[in-house]
Write a structure and sequence with these properties.
The chain is mainly alpha-helical and about 120 residues long. Helices cover about 75% and strands about 5% of the residues. The protein has one domain (about 1-115).
């Protein structure tokens, strides 16, 4: 479930064309989060689902911190400067993608009501 909640975040920047329509990868994959969340709740129960939601939340926070750290530390002298710049371009926006895209607030706020017993 952690994979399902964070995956749309990583593919949010990929645009796909369906005729005249342009959609991002997140728009295509985010609905799967709801489907897997419901299935997970049915199979593992409410407590297991809430546990998975919290694990996904903390995994996203950890990934954002690791992304910041890896971009921040200096590269080895033998590593080409162009590689460091490419690394910064690719992984620099990771914390922003995690905080602004669908995770962690989107799946958490949508899955918690589903996995909370009524």
């Amino acid at each position: 479930m952690s994979c399902c909640s964070s995956s749309p975040t990583w593919w949010a920047r990929k645009l796909t064309a369906f005729g005249p329509f342009r959609v991002s990868g997140a728009q295509l994959l985010f609905p799967l989060t709801y489907i897997f969340s419901d299935i997970f709740t049915e199979v593992y129960g409410y407590a297991g689902s809430r546990r998975a939601i919290w694990i996904a939340f903390f995994a996203n926070v950890l990934m954002a911190l690791m992304g910041l750290f890896m971009v921040w530390i200096p590269a080895a002298p033998e590593w080409p400067g162009a590689h460091q710049e490419a690394f910064r371009i690719v992984f620099g926006p990771v914390p922003r993608m995690i905080s602004r895209a669908s995770s962690p607030s989107g799946p958490g706020s949508s899955s918690i009501p589903t996995s909370w017993p009524r």
